[in-house]
Specification:
single chain; cytoplasm; Maspardin; AB_hydrolase_fold
Length: about 375
């Protein structure tokens, strides 16, 4: 039987808050001021400034819900932007505001990742704008129609009279009430705290957009640049509805994860992060190689400095045997790093040789065709 270890979300989130600052952008949409809050964590400043993966949460959420993706992907050199969108009461105004927000970021290449209703907003945005900056889409536990959720917004135009505690209670009732796996329970606790921090306007506007009967129309986007991720144990959105997203993109990459619930980015971050990295690599964005080479160079410099300092200090304070032991340890680490560096260089050389062989074969085929 699989043993599930706790994620310690509270502990890791606190350390994340201490290291990463939240940003704010204010803009005017339909004569109203809208303030976007977001995390912008850049991996390799020289290589990823003009390319970023932008993450959108669902109805219950803030930009903090993707903190584990920010940590994992940034460590590999990716620029990650997790967005908390301000209150919008219509899908049209959301798309208009999001477009202005992206313009202010001044990013040339964008990969959009949407969770739940965030995935629907991602598709709706592209559906209405056909933004050429968007290079790929990742849709997790999402859907292509809100018709089946219209009953969620029974209040209709009366929602402005509903107190905020009633909205929170209504939203929290959609969370699993039965016994769940430990990582999912931790994720639910984390999301409950997020919901408690939402104000009336944030909740009411999201529920209004979510409850509006609408459907994503067919749009011209290469299905091979789309990855659909579904948790097999998701509770809120029925599986049949989520599977329609993959039907919308017949040749997309379809990933099923065994557990994760409604918030797999928190309960099963390792698997979600793996699918995100594979998706970005398949779509031509792979800063890992550059980052690894830079790390090896940095470690080599550190080891050289430690070797020289250890030798000088040990000559004064240590015995000959202690000096020999320090040198052995340092040389072992140094050899290990050189081995990994050579391995990396050999892989690059092999890739180049493969490309040359392919070119030669291609040229030979052309010559044969000419002779014919």
């Amino acid at each position: 039987m699989t043993k599930f270890e706790p994620n310690n979300l509270e502990k890791t989130y606190k350390s994340f808050q201490e290291e990463v600052a939240i940003n704010k952008i204010s803009l005017i949409v339909e004569n109203e001021e809208k303030v976007y809050q977001y995390y912008d964590s850049t991996g390799l400043s020289n290589n990823s400034t003009n390319e970023a993966i932008i993450m959108l949460h669902g109805v219950p959420g803030k930009c903090q819900v993707f903190y584990q993706q920010i940590v994992a992907l940034t460590s590999r050199g990716y620029r990650v932007i997790s967005v908390e969108y301000p209150p919008f009461w219509t899908l049209f105004s959301f798309c208009q505001g999001f477009h202005e927000f992206l313009n202010l970021l001044e990013i040339e290449k964008i990969h959009l990742f949407g969770l739940g209703f965030g995935g629907y907003l991602v598709m709706k945005y592209f559906n209405s704008t056909n933004d050429k900056r968007i290079k790929s889409l990742i849709l997790c536990n999402s859907f292509v129609s809100t018709r089946s959720f219209a009953k969620f917004n029974k209040c209709g135009g009366m929602i402005s009279w509903v107190p905020v505690f009633w909205l929170k209670r209504k939203l929290l009732k959609t969370f699993p009430q039965k016994n769940v796996l430990l990582p999912i329970a931790e994720a639910i606790d984390f999301m409950v705290e997020i919901v408690e921090k939402l104000d009336y306007e944030e909740l009411a506007s999201r529920i209004t957009m979510f409850g509006y009967e609408d459907e994503i129309k067919d749009f011209d986007f290469d299905p091979k640049k789309v990855t659909v991720i579904n948790s097999m144990d998701s509770n809120f959105v029925p599986r049949k509805i989520r599977e329609k997203v993959a039907n919308k993109f017949p040749n997309c990459k379809y990933a099923k994860i065994k557990f994760g619930g409604d918030f797999p980015q928190l309960s099963n971050p390792q698997e979600i992060n793996m699918h995100l990295i594979v998706h970005l690599r398949n779509n031509g964005w792979n800063p890992d190689q550059i980052l690894l080479k830079n790390q090896i160079k940095l470690k080599n410099n550190i080891i050289e400095q430690s070797n020289s300092s250890a030798t000088s200090s040990s000559s004064d304070n240590s015995s000959d045997s202690e000096q020999d032991e320090i040198k052995k340890k340092n040389s072992f680490v140094h050899q290990k790093l050189i081995f990994s560096q050579r391995k990396e260089e050999n892989e690059d050389e092999n890739e180049n040789e493969k490309k040359k062989l392919n070119r030669n074969e291609h040229e030979k085929e052309k010559e044969k065709e000419k002779e014919k």
